[in-house]
Amino acid sequence: MLKVLTVFGTRPEAIKMAPLIKELQRHPDRLLCRVAVTAQHREMLDQVLHLFQIVPDHDLDIMRPGQSLFDITRRALDGLEQVMAREKPDLVLVHGDTTTTFVAALAAFYFQIPVGHVEAGLRTGDKYSPFPEEINRHLTAVVTDLHFAPTATARDNLLREGVAPEKIFVTGNTVIDALLATVDPHYRFGDAGLAGIDYRRRRVLLVTTHRRENLGEPMQEIYLALRDIVALYPDVEVVFPVHKNPAVRGVVQEVLGELPRVHLIEPLSYQPFVNLMNRCYLVLTDSGGLQEEAPALGKPVLVLRNTTERPEAIRAGTVRLVGTTREAVFNETRLLLDDAARYRQMAEAVNPYGDGRASRRISQAILYHFGLSDEPPEPFE
């Protein structure tokens, strides 16, 4: 029996780890799956745990008002020391690029426990963009034993950094597994404002912003561009789940508050959010994960950043990197609103990030690596 400890702390991690946890639990004769959460984010994490019916075995509950990266790192490391000393797992699974990810990998290293890194190998080449995620990825890779790269590009990044080929498995991204299991064409929104939008006759722009590097003037430029778009196109509505960060909310209210056809709403839980994404016309975001998810639903994505760790999407034509200036955001959005052929080209491009079977490949890779199966997984192409 192989004991696998999964560790995560934020909503995006929980979404992407949930289908993997469910897959690991399908092998009770060979795998014992234990779950630890740092709750680096609390409320949004709990929503996902409830949706996927995951009950953590350990909940560190480290979130505090106004917490800094130093606070998260200290509390997570202290808590995970106790968890790993108690569980003594054979493998620690982490995901992506959060502070929880790096700290859990470091704690496992201190206990000399092998680390598996889900969504390994993403790179921008700029250690401050995104911050601190880019360095969290690098630091986690150094102590990782099994690298579960979502794409061939991510694998190649790891190979260039000297990772042995036999330690890398190209799996696709588990976020597509979660997405396809959650989208429902008959879904009904509980929020009256969302339920009242005519998604067939109105072109809905779904907007999210939260990146630290975009705080201040970049966000103001983005919101001014949105204001210009709404003024120009009477059939456009903006739905904007506003991040809880006061630095985001202040600028949003200043530029977009009380504007007709702009719906400023509280952050949505995962289920209504992906079903909203399924009905929108276009996504504008500085998120990393949405660059993978939205194309799986045929939605073009304009990335409100200057760099991206997901170049496969740019090459595939599912996303465009537009930056944060008012002029660029306005012009690129107009192109997709005015040019139906350009819109179709992006909407119909093949999503390079997954086919809904990433969790199965990762589970097979773990069993194969530890000698519990003779069959390695077929790589995601």
From TrEMBL:
Q: Does the keyword Repeat apply?
A: no
The record ties this protein, via Pfam families, to: Epimerase_2
Q: Does the keyword Lyase apply?
A: no
Q: Report keywords, A-Z.
A: Isomerase
Q: Which InterPro entries match?
A: UDP_GlcNAc_Epimerase_2_dom, WecB-like
Enzyme class name: isomerase
The protein's superkingdom reads Bacteria
GO molecular function terms attached to this record? UDP-N-acetylglucosamine 2-epimerase activity
Quote the EC number. 5.1.3.14
Where do the UDP-N-acetylglucosamine 2-epimerase domain residues begin and end?
Answer: 23-366
Q: Which Gene3D superfamilies does the annotation name?
A: Glycogen Phosphorylase B
Q: Extract the PANTHER family matched here.
A: UDP-N-ACETYLGLUCOSAMINE 2-EPIMERASE
Family under the similarity heading = Belongs to the UDP-N-acetylglucosamine 2-epimerase family.
Protein name, UniProt field? UDP-N-acetylglucosamine 2-epimerase (non-hydrolyzing)
According to its UniProt entry, this protein's organism is Desulfofundulus thermosubterraneus DSM 16057
